[in-house]
Amino acid sequence: MMTDALKNHVGQAAEQMKKVIAHLEAELLKIRAGKASPQVVEGLMVDYYGNPTPLSQISNINTPDGRTIAIQPWEKNMIDPIEKAIMDANLGFTPQNDGTLIRINIPPLTEERRKDLVKGTHAEGEHNKVSIRNIRRDSNEHIKKETKNGASEDMVKEAELEVQSLTDAHIKKIDEHVSVKEKEIMTV
């Protein structure tokens, strides 16, 4: 039976690991896999009357087809600042505006570009695995200190085992996400 303090450390580790997975999912959404996706641009910061504002808060963003992102600003005078933000973000495509709507045509990915994106996906996965392992290390340090507060060796071992199983489960989840993204990128 673990003490409340040990359960608390294990619970905090689980919570932090969940956040790492959520972060990974958000980062993987930003990696474009050759098809148009609003996530590619919705977080772009646009100069809205002197305030940096996310593109999604000043326009409608949709994908009329698999190769096009359409951005409809709520105010006509925001067309130029939006276009400038897209160019400054260096996303690898050129916006076209017709005065009321900005269209971005997503070119098909070359084999080389696909491989680069897969490398980036794996790097993001590794980065997140390191975060998970750091959480495990920090949790285990806190758990070991609980022996001073009266927790038995067995309780500490049990808590460490629980943190290790959380670590294993979350690293497996990261591998699954990376694998799915890799398939998505390599599918022509």
What features would you describe in this structure?
The chain has 188 residues and is of the alpha+beta class. It folds into two domains: 4-30 and 110-186, Topoisomerase I, Chain A, domain 4 (Orthogonal Bundle), CATH 1.10.132; 39-105, Gyrase A, domain 2 (2-Layer Sandwich), CATH 3.30.1360. 59% of the residues lie in helices and 15% in strands. It has five helices and six strands; from the N terminus they run H-H-E-E-E-E-H-E-E-H-H. It has helices spanning 4-30, 39-42, 79-88, 111-145, 153-186; strands at 45-48, 51-54, 59-65, 68-73, 95-97, 102-105. The chain has a four-stranded antiparallel β-sheet, with helices on one face. Strand 1 (45-48) and strand 2 (51-54) form a beta hairpin. Helix 1 runs antiparallel to helix 4 (111-145). The longest helix is centred in the C-terminal third of the chain and has 35 residues, at 111-145. The chain is elongated and about 70 Å long. The termini are far apart.
Short description:
The protein is of the alpha+beta class and 188 residues long.
Task: Fill in the keyword field for this structure.
alpha+beta, Topoisomerase I, Chain A, domain 4, Gyrase A, domain 2, two-stranded antiparallel ribbon, 5 helices, 6 strands
Instruction: Please name the CATH topology of the largest domain.
Output: Topoisomerase I, Chain A, domain 4
Strand-residue fraction? Answer: 5-15%
> Under the CATH scheme, which class of the largest domain?
Mainly Alpha
CATH superfamily of the largest domain: Ribosome-recycling factor
Distance between the termini: 53 Å
How many structural domains?
2
Q: Strand count, sense and closure of the main sheet?
A: 4 strands, antiparallel
Structural class assignment: alpha+beta
Number of DSSP helices?
5
Approximate shape = elongated
Using the CA coordinates, give the radius of gyration. 22 Å
Q: Helical amount among residues, as a percent range?
A: 55-70%
Mean pLDDT: 89
The neighbouring-strand order within the major sheet is: 3-4-6-5
* Spans where pLDDT lies below 50 across 5 or more residues: none
CATH structural architecture of the largest domain: Orthogonal Bundle
Strand count: 6
**Helix and strand string, N-terminal first?**
HHEEEEHEEHH
